[in-house]
Amino acid sequence: MSLVALIRRSFQRPWFPPLILVAGTWLMYGLFPFPGFRRWDSLMTATVLHQWERVGLRQIFYFAHTLVIPATRIVALIAPRLDPLVVVSLRETLLAGVNTALLYGFLRQVTGLRSGAFVMALASIFLHGRWLLVTHGEEKEMLLLLQLLLLRWGWLCLRETSAGRTSPALRSFRWEILGALMALAVAVHLENGLMVLTLAMVLVRDSFRKKFPWNILIRTGGMAFLLALAWFAWLIVGVNHIHTGAGAWRWLMEYHVTGEFFNVNPHLDDQALEAWKGFRRLLMGAQGEHGLLGLELMAGLTLTGLTVVRSWRRDPRSTTLALIFLGMMTLHFFYWLPWDPEQWLPVIPMGSGLILNAWGTFGRRFETLLFALTLVLAI
Length: 379
Prior knowledge:
This protein is mainly α.
């Protein structure tokens, strides 16, 4: 059997590409940590681990990303001799491997392109901003984990509505799980609320078009709202003298309402350039920034427009989902820390799907070459 045939045969096994991606991610981030100082989130989590016995239960969860510290504690129990800062980075490294495999599964689920999905997932490992955030112990892989789980399950549900299925039992089972996932995603990281809103907007549109019954939508949304409300009420009320809904809302929005990070009176051209810098730094870092970034931005916007048109022609439904989410993300971070690559990391799943829908079909002409190339890169 030739090497090319062996590669093709291996990639046809459903477990092989995710296994390669998980192993490649762990090797990349484990053997080549990003140098430099740690960021605030990792330092805060490591401090809590160091003083675990002195922190109460609600205080463990009382953080903008409420399940990050408990997840880190599990890793610390598995590896008790490691320094807390190492434990924080290890948590993100382990989750990054899982997320890369989930990204591959989501892209293949949406586009049907096996080799293209593998290449996009593999490329995500080498993003400069992701490499920095994972090995510095930020919480973004926790965010991506719930985002990808929500996307994969949500896409199954959306595909059900587009197929016109009418099984009440199956539909109820799926959508109740989606409601619970929505609440869990927001509990893990408030930024996942943008993904929840995206799915909700698509479902409401389908309900108006009579593709989906309103009673199921209300039950799903009601479950998500009640679970999230119960969680945040238990978490917030009574802590730091918070006893009202207004006080709880101010706590949830504290980063935004302070004005420290949120620019309410920006110059649009300057802000657009800062946003482009932030996205560019996610891809390749600050290296190579030059005086013609404005022209580069215009070229990027033109290419984005072509990508949207091509993706829409191939799959309007997934393109609509991507445009709603990416539009809300861009609007949000256009005014809030646009220069920081951390803020743009959540665009990876939907952005990758949009690109693959638009241009991935070209890869079918060179599938054998892609299989060989991606395996060599993974190794």
